[in-house]
Specification:
alpha+beta
Length: 296
């Protein structure tokens, strides 16, 4: 029976309690309210390599916002939150301190106040708080604040213009009726290549020579570029050479395709194709490639 009573007391110490109010305080803080007035997308050309037909962009948004600045007076209630397991050491501590509190009052009387009375009350408060199983001891290092009420005063209104990268957003690239989609990365950058290492080209699917870039929600293009007829001819010859190689790839044909791409000024594409094919094919393929290169 005694064991059950003891367990019941421990359980009550663990689940029953309330926070210990420390004090109320007034603080002044600055608060801001932002209202977005308009967003204007902007596409910046970071790199325009016309020889290789590679374009690198950065998509940003120019954001115009109305900012209101407030001075906020808050009245806070600061308290020590209740934690049940702390009662397992606080109650014994209270039992230990209580006699010292009583003795302190006796010493205060005997010494005619030479022993400070506020020391006595401090020990009393600490011991009684510790003895209360529903209350934790005040702890200035473990507290929470609750806002009782606040008052806001407007002190300034201004317009702010900021620029932000547009991340993970699809861009639609159109040439005539042909459309290709690219996506910006985590920094707002995107790369558009007019010719891939498989011979695919948006420019060769239409007679239109101007490509336009659109962002979601905007009906007009944010960027446009006209491809010259000379560039279109280079794209056509390079695409035909790559597709011819892809139909029956071998090391000898790869070298000849690489040389033609370099002659057409597609140096980056030729280098990428060379690395791609040599890394995925076997030693016989590589020997044929280097034998053809040495023969030239």
């Amino acid at each position: 029976m005694k064991y059950c009573v003891f367990l019941g007391i421990l359980f009550l110490l663990s689940v029953c309690g309330c926070r210990n109010h420390m004090r109320e305080m007034d603080i002044n803080v600055t608060d801001y309210e932002r209202k977005v007035l308009r967003n204007r997308p902007s596409l910046h050309v970071i790199e325009a390599d016309e020889n290789n037909c590679i374009f690198r962009f950065k998509l940003t948004v120019n954001r115009e916002s109305e900012v209101k600045e407030y001075q906020v007076l808050k009245t806070l209630s600061r308290y020590t939150p209740w934690t049940g397991w702390r009662e397992y050491y606080e109650v014994p501590l209270g039992l230990l301190l209580f006699p010292f509190g009583v003795a302190g009052h006796a010493v205060n009387i005997v010494t005619l106040g030479m022993y400070p009375f506020n020391w006595c009350t401090a020990v009393d408060n600490l011991s009684l708080s510790a003895l209360n199983p529903g209350l934790n001891i005040e702890n200035p290092d473990r507290f929470e604040d609750e806002v009782l009420h606040s008052r806001k005063t407007l002190i300034d209104t201004r317009i702010e213009n900021t620029t932000h990268p547009v991340r993970n957003t699809q861009l639609n690239i159109r040439m005539g009726r042909s459309v290709r989609t690219i996506t910006t990365d985590s920094d707002g950058f995107a790369v558009f290549e007019l010719l891939s290492s498989y011979g695919n080209s948006l420019a060769l699917k239409t007679q239109e020579r101007e490509f336009q870039i659109f962002v979601p929600g905007v009906s007009i293009p944010v960027y446009s570029q006209i491809i010259s007829r000379n560039t279109r001819e280079r794209l056509s010859r390079a695409a035909a050479a790559i597709k011819k190689y892809r139909r029956q790839p071998d090391g000898k044909k790869l070298y000849r395709t690489i040389m033609l791409l370099e002659k057409l000024k597609f140096s980056k594409l030729s280098h990428a194709l060379e690395k791609q094919e040599l890394s995925k094919n076997g030693k016989n393929f590589q020997r044929a490639f280097y034998r053809e290169a040495a023969a030239k």
